[in-house]
Amino acid sequence: MLNVAVFVSGTGSNLEALLSTKDRGFFLKEVNFVAVFSDKDSPPAFKYAEERNIPTFHRDPKAYKSKEEYEEEIFHILKSTNTDFICLAGYMMIVGKTLLKEYEKRIINIHPSLLPSFKGLHAQRQALERGVKYSGCTIHYVDRGVDTGEIIAQQTVPCIDGDTEETLSERILREEHKLYWQTLELISKGFSHE
Ligand code: GRF
C-alpha cells in the first residue's frame, strides 16, 4: 500500500475528488490516505478529511524561525503517519529542500495549465490573456522551482469564446478531479516515470 498525505491550503475540491474516488471502492485500492496537512488554520478542505476520520494537521509557517525548521516539523508529522508519498492539492507554499530531500520524487502537484506554459498564480487568467485556444491541467513532480518539475500527466481543455477566469477554471477543475486520481492510481500500481 502507498501511504499518501495530501497538502492543501484552501477549498479542497481536488482532495474531495481523491477521497470520494477511494470511497467508491473501485480505484485507489493500493492507496491509504493517512494525513491531510495545511499551512492554514482550519481550511475548508479539512472537512473532507474529518468526515472520513483522516487526521488533519495544521502548522503555521510564521511560527518557525526558518523554512528548514518548519519542514522538519512537517517531516515529523509525516513520519508519525508513515507517509510514503505526498500529493499537493492547492497547497500554496513552495516546498523547500528539507522535504524535497526526504521525499525525493515522491511529491507531486497539480497545476491548472498545460505546463510549461503559465506557471505560478492565476494560470487560467494568464491563458485567457494570451489568447490560447486550449489550456488544461498538469500533474508534475515537485522540484525546487515553481511548477517546473518533470511532467507526469496532462489533460487539455478548450478555451471558449467569452470564457472568464471563472468559467475556464471550472472547466479545468472538472478535469483535474479525474486526472489526479487516475495518475495516483498508476503511481500506486508501481508506474514509475523514469
Ligand atoms: C487547483 O486549480 C489546482 O490546480 C491548483 O490549486 C487549485 C486548488 O483547488 N494548484 P482545490 O483547493 O483543490 O479546489
Describe this structure as you would to a colleague:
It is a single chain. With 194 residues, the chain is α/β, with parallel strands linked by helices. It is built from 6 helices and 7 strands. Strands 3-2-1-4-5-6-7 form a 7-stranded mixed β-sheet, sandwiched between helices. Strand 2 (31-38), helix 2 and strand 3 (56-58) form a beta-alpha-beta unit. Helix 1 crosses helix 6. The protein binds 5-O-phosphono-beta-D-ribofuranosylamine.
Task: Write the topology of this structure.
Layout: E1 2-8, H1 13-24, E2 31-38, H2 46-50, E3 56-58, H3 67-80, E4 85-88, H4 97-102, E5 107-111, H5 123-130, E6 134-141, E7 151-158, H6 165-188
Parallel strand pairs: 1-2, 1-4, 2-3, 4-5
Antiparallel strand pairs: 5-6, 6-7
The structure holds 5-O-phosphono-beta-D-ribofuranosylamine.
Shape: globular
Element order: H for helix, E for strand: EHEHEHEHEHEEH
Cross-sheet strand order for the largest sheet = 3-2-1-4-5-6-7
The level of helicity is: 25-40%
Multimer state:
single chain
Low-confidence stretches: none
Structure in a nutshell:
The chain has helices at 13-24, 46-50, 67-80, 97-102, 123-130, 165-188, and strands at residues 2-8, 31-38, 56-58, 85-88, 107-111, 134-141, 151-158. The chain is α/β, with parallel strands linked by helices and 194 residues long. The longest helix is centred in the last third of the chain and has 24 residues, at 165-188.
